[in-house]
Amino acid sequence: MKELLLKRKGRFILYVLACFLPVVDTLLRNFSFALIIGSIEKGQMDYFVKVFALAIFFAVLGILLFILSRFMRISFMRDTILDVRIQAFDKILKHSYKNFSKKSKDVYISNLINDINVFEQHFFHKLLNVIYFGGQYTASLIILLFLDYKFALSLFVVSIVLFFFSKSFEKKTVKLQEEVSENNEKFTTNIANTFNGLEILKLNNIEDKFLGSTLKAVDKVERKKLHYTVFTEGQRNLTNFLGFVIFVGILIYSISSILNGASFAKTALMLQLSNGCVWPIVQLFPFLNELRASNTIYNKITKNDEDTSSSIVKEKNFEFNSEIRVEGLKFNYDGKEIFKGASFNIEKGKKYLLKGESGSGKSTLIKLLSMVVDDYEGSITMDGVNYREIKEESLNNNVSFVYQDVFLFEDTIANNITLFKDIPEEKILKAAEGAGLIEFLNEKKLGLQETLMENGKNLSGGQRQRISIARAIVKNASILFVDEGTSSLNEELGRAVEDTILSLDSTVIAISHRYYKGITEKYDYVLEVKNGLVTQYKSQDYFSMEVLAL
Ligand SMILES: Nc1ncnc2c1ncn2[C@@H]1O[C@H](COP(=O)(O)OP(=O)(O)OP(=O)(O)O)[C@@H](O)[C@H]1O
């Protein structure tokens, strides 16, 4: 938080000064009041008129100071909030894919929308109040020190007691604010799930069931917000009550001072200044707790929380000229064993088909080989280099993926193939040709420059898959991972796409439940995943075995 505020040091100082201007206004009003009481005590009309004129001047000055304060604060607040938005967005984009995929994307959306809005609405309001009340307290206490130092010191001691009293609420305030944030995340995920599955909900007439669970999530968020508000307001009311008790004490002290001969004007000024000490300090502490809660939210949405505890430094570049060797691979999801010592090799340029029952670990194996998960035991080496030492960015530059669901951008076909990289049109066309997209492009008036609709709504399943294959070709991907790349296509399209994949120079590691006679046999090897182990077969052997088994 400090770095954020001090990023624009000069403007932050200006902001703090701006928060002090209302303190000057309050002090001027205190003096006006004391002077008016003094003039009444004096009983001279001339003096009273002068004092009254001065009080009006101070009142007008106060309004001007308020307007000036607002102008001085506004641009700093706007730019700082913008920084928070950029930092929060940047944090998400900088996540490695592995860490990004640990949470639902809706949680990130909630952080970007709900948490930033909460921060935006609360942070500067609290900061302004903390500076204003802190300033008023300090200024009043210093003046009181000159007027009656014993009295000022006693007030100081009382404020320290109040500080520790208020501090006891800090943890709970921070925790409640975190709970509001967590429930906002759950609510956003719930809403997103409902919308994602709206088609199926409607077709099966089960919207009401989901409406019920959404309403429950809304109820929970609202309850948490209420809990937070009741707690912070309760805290404020309790400290206000203590403030009232202290003020009664001050009032008794003031009356006894007047009875002992102190002037009305001085007593009025001291009373006003004590007021300026007690009430601000009473207000300040709850605000301070809420400011800390805002700080926690700021850290949550902007600070990098990736686990960097691994002692292995990733400094090697991806270089794949010969083979990937997997030895004694063990992996589990929260104790559920998926691999228990699998060993096999992947040769450069060969095509591998992963086979195995549903849930046997085929997709997990692709995740391990593409570094999406790396908390495995055993060893994976690429041309002798430990996989864990290879920079993720370097690997990502050399591999490509074809999934059942292809994400397409609302942009030109060219940008969807190059993924926004600067690649000559000639090369893009060659990739499109390799992926069997030429016929599709010829139908488009603008060819490669034709814009796709949101997530390629205007494309068929086969066309979408071909675009993802064109991505792999244009990237010159050394390894192509395919997870059910043809399962959503009809037989004819599936055959064509599979054939295209198998004709690439890349090493292919694919999962497919489909068997295309005359095409599937083109895989060099089958890796069968069974009982936590991987067995490698030459594809002809594997398929002849399957035929025999039938
Ligand atoms: N992120 C995860 N957290 C916990 N368990 C998981 C996770 N991903 C997969 N699993 C479990 O690990 C096992 C292997 O899953 P995986 O997706 O690798 O299987 P698969 O062979 O690809 O299955 P299918 O052919 O049905 O797609 C399954 O039992 C699955 O439930």
From TrEMBL:
Coiled coil stretches, renumbered: none
Keywords attached to this entry: ATP-binding, Membrane, Nucleotide-binding, Transmembrane, Transmembrane helix
Boundaries of every ABC transmembrane type-1 domain copy: 12-293
Superkingdom of the organism of origin: Bacteria
Main location as per UniProt: membrane
One cellular component (GO) term of this entry: plasma membrane
Pfam families documented for this protein: ABC_membrane, ABC_tran
Gene Ontology molecular function: any one: ATPase-coupled lipid transmembrane transporter activity
Subcellular location: Cell membrane
Residue ranges annotated for the ABC transporter domain, each copy included: 324-550
Keyword Metal-binding: no
Keyword Transmembrane: yes
Transmembrane segments: 12-35, 47-68, 127-145, 151-169, 241-265
Topological relation to the membrane, as annotated: Multi-pass membrane protein
Protein name in the entry: ABC transporter transmembrane region
Species: Proteiniborus ethanoligenes
